[in-house]
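Methods, example record. To illustrate the input and output format used throughout this study, we show the complete record for N-acetyltransferase. The sequence lines were provided to the predictor; the line carrying structure tokens was produced by it.
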Amino acid sequence: MDNYSFIIKPATEAHTIYASMITDEMEQSAKARGTGIAKRSPEYIMTKMMEGKAVIATTSDGEWAGFCYIEAWGHGKYVANSGLIVAPQFRKFGLAREIKKEIFKLSKTKYPESKIFGLTTGAAVMKINSELGYIPVSYSDLTDDEQFWKGCQSCVNFEILQSKNRQNCLCTAMLYEPKAQKNQHEDLALRDDFKKNIKLFERWTRLKKYVLLNLKKTKNKTFNLF
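The corresponding predicted structure is encoded as:
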């Protein structure tokens, strides 16, 4: 196995040269998973870098390896760590976990009073979030900022979100509350067996996907009868 050395730090204007590569990989990764993410332009990613609201990973040789950025919603009451992506050749090295840790730390520095949330279909990301102190919550516990939910319109599963009145979808909602007491997180966190075994996460996401996608198919067949 190749022995890579990564540099993970807040992105700056100097990193804007990677913006197009990052957005291209975000789109390709979403297609490969069969899910959708809110599409972002290279210009949007550049803005996040210049605002100091992003973390980037590069190799010691300057090759782009991974990325994640911060978005604030509801006048800063809620913060999301979005667009986590690792270049294909650098996956399986634990890089996503390290980027997540850095963007989480940056989020708490920039928005110390904000709730940090995420929506993901990825079992690995769910496990990392749990390790950082996120807990699984209902969609109603997330921001009601309409601009955030508009971002879901580019997702291939947006119809499911609409049909569930924005209360459920293939993504799992997770939330970190900075003012929550430690024992509250422990009481609400995922079961110990989930923390130890990522296969259980994967089983849960597969089951959720199966149920919701089959409901969508059934609905479409019903519509076709009329």
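Annotations derived from this record:
Residues 185-189, 221-226 have pLDDT under 50 and may be disordered.
The longest helix spans residues 198-224.
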